[in-house]
Amino acid sequence: MKGDTKQMVKMSLVNLIKFGVYIISELSQLFIICWSGDKLINNSMDTAWKLYSCNWEGTSMSLYKGSGRNGKEEYRCPSDIEFMKRMILVMLRSQKPLRITALKFSVLSLQSFTKVRTTEIYLN
């Protein structure tokens, strides 16, 4: 009887270790996906500001290569009306961030990873 109990404890310890490794690997995979989703949200939110601050309303009418300061070549953005309209549309679209969702149920971001982690700690 004593030997059976010792073997059950040994098996349950092995199963506990397996379960711990499984949970750690699942959480690390979820973290990587949520981190990527968070980077996507942040970068897509920055798009409008970066486009606005890149001198898209330049003075030239077409893309050309000219000599700039110190003899270096510089390229200027086209400033025709069609280009400006397209830039405005891109800036308007980039006001709403891109998101990775899980079946349209949850947005995958670091905030949702934190919620999963807190729930997991709460359930233990």
UniProtKB/TrEMBL annotation:
The keyword Cell membrane applies. Keywords: Cell membrane, Membrane, Olfaction, Receptor, Sensory transduction, Transducer, Transmembrane, Transmembrane helix. Signal peptide: none annotated. It is found in: Cell membrane. GO terms for biological process: signal transduction. GO terms for cellular component: plasma membrane. It is a multi-pass membrane protein. GO terms for molecular function: odorant binding; olfactory receptor activity. Pfam families: 7tm_6. Its main location: membrane. InterPro entries: 7tm6_olfct_rcpt (IPR004117). Interacts with Orco. Complexes exist early in the endomembrane system in olfactory sensory neurons (OSNs), coupling these complexes to the conserved ciliary trafficking pathway. PANTHER family: ODORANT RECEPTOR, ODORANT RECEPTOR 13A-RELATED. This is Uncharacterized protein. The lineage of its organism: Eukaryota, Metazoa, Ecdysozoa, Arthropoda, Hexapoda.
